[in-house]
């Protein structure tokens, strides 16, 4: 076993095995994981986080991998966190890891981690961000956060990035679907992947139309654009990297990056508070009281609202008693 | 303005306008909404909740509407809550309402409500369940909860139903995608919609294969099956209703329905507690303290974990002081 201090030292020195260890501790919510993250936090803030999201089958992994290669060629240290909300009963990513291993992983220089939900989908979003912190502390200059953009916690991960890229494909209605799924709001720009397929130009046009609609209601400095790519052939990757660089520059000059990161930290602190309050509240006594009283709710002798109110009154009362 | 007591009376009498009013109050989180829900809760527990979910474009609305018609023909009182996590800047459902209006709504007897997220996606899941409670209190015997099954809060809504139906289409990889999205766990059975398209039998087989895999690891009384349907032509609707009835019977005889509903209420109470703790915690003083201290976090002079810990210590301390 490696002590925490040593682990922090090894992570910040960029030791790959230590990074993997640290992420595992975070993923498994080891007792010590908050203390570890707290120590690592002091070394974060230098990595640039890029969110890659979009519907299933849009080719996110391919583009993420090619982008990673692109940044490697520029001599940058690159890490990938791929979030895969896989079914709990398979216990992990389905194909993601293997597909990747034959590609960039062989490089040996891009750190790749697939994270899947084990039971709680809710915790996944937090853990992915914390894993990005570990990569940041380990000196990764580019951190790619790849996630299926189809739900709240996935959007949450993508929007925790400095630049968020939404990947779509030329399938009918995709623009509308993306809009429905909330992808329009988080996209700093769009990539129409598989642009060699029929309907590509039409799809680009449809996304632009929807974006135009957005621009009527929101005045922003940065105007999201739509790029075309064929990820599998490496076409359009340089252009994506250029667009990311342009967005980064725009954020840095406008002060937007600072604002974004401030908001991100605020949300993180609020989440930590929330979590700790839950732990403090649900003592075994109070959990038992809930189970006992639940039958009366089922019989409609009290309402969930009344029971919640009584449990909270008890919590406050206990704190008062302890203090007096 | 209608007083709360009168509103409760009108809702439980099945007054459509009162039901619409009550759901609006819930949706807008009016000050009074918890008190209203608390009063209505006493009249709930008789409606049977059916979750209809699946990926975008699977034809959920069509099947939901046809099912509603089916139950109407049986003389049952039917309500639909359609959850549409639409983009905040359009402010509502895109096509859903209109498509529906030309179909069952004209009937005048099926209560239909589309709910979209206004800002917070997180609250949507709670509100949808509460809207179902309103319908339940108003005497709806069948409550259809339709939602895009692509994220945590949507899965949350679907799994809050007594029977959950997952709709898929014969597109390659759909079984795998559904599995990844966590749909396999919540499905009481599957419907392969648009089964007149090529690849339908193969898709059914692929879902069955994955289900077989699940059955190896989980011993359950109820074995999810895969039905075929062509929703647009009304084909397979009777079979879906039969499967729902069979699942309901299985739940009722095994005691599973009681267990499910107990768990659902427990989660509801936990969510109410969580929400109230947040309100109590984030006083304006404490929010200001967070903003003040945030700069020191950004400058890496303290960590998010330290700041969260200090805010919580302050909260407990305050309760103690108040009590002494």
Walk me through what this model shows.
2 copies of one chain form a homodimer. In chain A, strands 3-2-4-1-5-6-7 form a 7-stranded parallel β-sheet, sandwiched between helices. Chain A is built from 14 helices and 7 strands. With 324 residues, chain A is an alpha/beta fold. The longest helix of chain A is centred in the C-terminal third of the chain and has 26 residues. Chain A has 3 domains: 43 residues, no CATH class; 210 residues, 3-Layer(aba) Sandwich (Rossmann fold); 42 residues. Helices cover 56% and strands 12% of the residues of chain A. Chain A is globular. Chains A and B meet through helix 3, helix 7, helix 8, helix 12 and helix 13 of A and helix 3, helix 7, helix 8, helix 12 and helix 13 of B.
Topology at a glance:
2 copies of one chain form a homodimer.
Chain A (H helix, E strand, L loop, with lengths): L3 H9 L3 H12 L5 H9 L6 E7 L5 H14 L4 E7 L11 H6 L9 E6 L5 H16 L4 E7 L3 H7 L4 E6 L5 H7 L2 H4 L2 E4 L7 H18 L8 E3 L8 H18 L1 H26 L2 H15 L5 H20 L1
Parallel strand pairs in A: 1-4, 1-5, 2-3, 2-4, 5-6, 6-7
Helix pairs in contact in A: 1-2, 1-3, 2-6, 4-11, 6-7, 8-10
């Amino acid at each position: 076993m490696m002590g925490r201090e040593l682990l922090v030292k090894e992570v910040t020195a960029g030791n790959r095995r230590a990074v993997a260890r640290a992420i595992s501790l975070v993923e498994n919510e080891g007792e010590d994981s908050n203390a570890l993250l707290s120590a690592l936090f002091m070394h974060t803030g230098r990595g640039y986080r890029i969110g890659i999201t979009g519907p299933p089958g849009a080719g996110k992994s391919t583009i993420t991998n090619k982008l990673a290669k692109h940044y490697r060629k520029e001599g940058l240290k690159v890490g990938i966190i791929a979030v895969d909300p896989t079914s709990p009963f398979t216990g992990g990513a389905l194909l993601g890891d293997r597909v990747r291993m034959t590609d960039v992983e062989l490089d040996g220089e891009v750190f790749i981690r697939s994270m899947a939900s084990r039971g709680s989908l809710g915790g996944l979003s937090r853990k992915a961000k914390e894993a990005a912190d570990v990569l940041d502390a380990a000196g990764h200059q580019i951190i790619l956060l790849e996630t299926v953009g189809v739900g709240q916690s996935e959007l949450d991960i993508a929007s925790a990035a400095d630049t968020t890229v939404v990947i779509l494909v030329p399938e009918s209605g995709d623009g509308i679907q993306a809009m429905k799924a909330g992808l329009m709001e988080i996209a700093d720009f769009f990539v129409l992947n598989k642009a060699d397929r029929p309907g590509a130009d039409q799809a680009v046009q449809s996304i632009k139309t929807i974006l135009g609609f957005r621009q009527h209601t929101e005045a922003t400095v940065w105007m999201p654009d739509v790029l075309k790519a064929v990820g599998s052939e490496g076409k359009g990757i340089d252009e994506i990297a250029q667009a990311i660089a342009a967005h980064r520059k725009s954020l840095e000059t406008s002060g937007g990056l600072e604002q974004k990161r401030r908001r991100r930290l605020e949300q993180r602190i609020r989440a930590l508070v929330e979590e700790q309050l839950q732990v403090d509240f649900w003592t075994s006594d109070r959990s038992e009281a809930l189970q006992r009283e639940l039958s009366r709710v089922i019989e409609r002798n009290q309402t969930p609202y009344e029971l919640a109110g009584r449990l909270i009154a008890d919590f406050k009362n206990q704190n008062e008693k302890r203090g007096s």
